[in-house]
Amino acid sequence: MNIIKNLFTFASAFAAMTTVNAQNPIIHNQFTADPTARVFNGRLYLFPSHDIISPVEPERKWFCMADYHMFSSNDLVEWTDNGMILSQEQVPWGNPAAFSMWAPDCVFVPNKDNLRNGKYYFYFPDAPKEGRGFGVGVAVADNLFQPKFVPQESNIKGISGIDPCVLQASDGNSYIFWGGGGLRVAKLKENMIELADDNPVETMKMGDREIKSIGVSCDKTLPKGFKEGPFAFERNGKFYLTYPWVRKEKGDPDGKGGTIDNPTECLAYAMSDNPMGPYEYKGIIMAEHENGCWTNHHSIVEFKGQWYLFYHHNDYSPSFDKNRSTCIDYLYFNEDGTIQEVKPTKRGVGISDTRKPVQVDRYSDIGGGATIEYHDTLNYFLGWKTVLPKKGWVKYDRVDTKSSSAQNVCVKVKTTAAGKLTLSLGSYTADVAVPNTKGEWQEVDVTVSTMPSGVNDLKLTNSGASEVEVDWITLTESPREKYFNKADVNTKYSPDEEGFIRSWWLREPLDKPNRSNTVFVDSYLRENLTAPAMTPVGADWHALESNRFNVKLFRFASGMEKQVYGVIFHAITVIECAEDINDVRLAVGSNSASRWWLNDDEVLMLSGDRRMVRDDAVSARINLKKGRNVLRGAVINGPGMSDFCVRFIDEKGEPVKNCKITLK
Question: I need a surface site. Which of 142, 197, 242, 435 has the fewest CB within 10 A?
Fold first, then answer.
């Protein structure tokens, strides 16, 4: 066999595991609960809490949260983890070992002299160093490019509670809502870190004691029942107070002929003409989770003309509902301003690009006996598969082939006998022959007649006699694209239209046995992933140009008939700049873990078991100097199909393209 020919002509069967196209849950490498979504400068930012298993009491069956990450997206389809923005050790007034950093919020306050400038105020609850209960703190940042949120020395005086939310109202004032012992609201000073002096003071009775509380209790006009997690917003002159609510009591009918043993939260809302109420109860936004997940927590935001509900569910932790994950669904209003109830979906929002794997287990509809199962009950983050018996089917709406000449179907399947799937795309249908994969996952690649372009609904039906398990499906152009071309070391290439670097020196894989990607913690990577030399040396290095934005290392190795699993790959390229380009960030996605160096300095490490998501991790601010800049990477692969994508982005998150790529 001609190995080199095999490498460059082996057909494209799979765009290795990239973004999961806004399917619920939306974040796939960590738990993300209590999601607060905000729109800043046309981009949506997500500020969730971060559930973990307690590192000090692993058997502790309660909420455990030590820090906050920020995520962002331009389309609610592809998400960037902008990294940790605050941890419990950084809070001057907080207990550094309380693991009590619950639901947060973030708002932007423009500079009065220049509305484009201003500060970001991040509100968070934490347990104090001394005493009991919770306080609410504020951390302040100048930007979200490389956010450095600096926590204030003390918490907000007058607030004792959790789950802060700040409403910037049309009357020019800002109001803070919080939970814990009921829902309360108070006006903030212009400095955004203190309560205003003109807030009312209410006297409340707790047992035989009288306690004075600043602000207003919102509970007085709302139905009874435990409430927390307020989220307030304004629309068409009306103020909405939304909240998780335990509306039922133990012993109430469960609607299934029995009684409720452990009442759980629904999402409810009330409306008012005044940001400080009184609020009139209106109804339910989302009913209790059917699987008994005790909490729900949410935010509601308008983004590019559409309203969305962000909420959480324990999809990736079905046996422990204190580890939750963020989901999104569409939200709609009635003409009178009331909210239509939202039914949670697996499909989520957005339009899925069929050039990337479409996880049909996140279905819109399902029938014929088809079921959804986890890939691995020891690692739920590996996601789900669809099991299709004879005549079983699954439907996934809103997909886009992104091409007027798509003719290639690739589906990852597992079978024990040959079978057949029928693909429907709108009114189009095509049959896909499925071989006997002998109980192993295999990518089946089939050329069909030209599929319709534009947005359509996709349906897979098992039209054969044997059961078929499906992981994902892609629809791409045909004839099938090569993975790589040989690169000319004397040519200066440009980044592609999205700024991705496609020209690389790639080294043949180095043996590094590892049965699982779960071992790829920071200490392991620092010991085992070292930077290649600044200049490629040896016959095992190959100058290649990737035909996709993601450099498919798995296909590079298999095409050269080299080991594909339990290996380390090295990559080198040179960035040539006509002038200094300052304050950029390296943005990387990799299937599995990786480390990256610019010139002589490490600038980024992606640890853990990952899926390849563009801009999955971004570096701190770095400078590209005039002349040559050597970029080096090391990617480790366990049992997965490794690849990576790399580009530089500017302060606005836009790709840096005013440079050249050379391998000389």
Answer: 197
> How many residues in the chain?
664
Mean pLDDT, rounded, for 311-338 = 95
Q: Is 75 a catalytic residue?
A: no
Neighbouring C-beta atoms of residue 352, cutoff 10 Å: 26
Nearest to 502 by CA among 355, 352, 353, 643: 643
Take residue 117 and report the two structure tokens written for it. Answer: 């400038």
Active site residue 130: no
**Maximum distance among all Cα pairs of the chain, rounded to whole angstroms:** 88
Highest mean pLDDT range out of 8-12, 58-62, 63-67, 257-261?
63-67
**295: CB partners within 8 A, 6+ apart:** 33, 244, 264, 265, 312, 321, 324
Choose, from 51, 105, 126, 228, the residue flagged as catalytic. 228
Q: Give 64's strand partners.
A: none
Return the structure tokens found at 149. 């949120």
For residue 525, the surrounding DSSP H or E stretch is helix 522-528
Round to the nearest angstrom and report the end-to-end CA distance of the chain.
30
pTM beyond 0.90: no
**Residue 48 backbone zone (phi > 0: left; psi -120 to 50: alpha; other: beta):** beta
Alpha-carbon gap, residue 407 to 476, rounded angstroms: 6
Helices (H), 529-572: 553-559
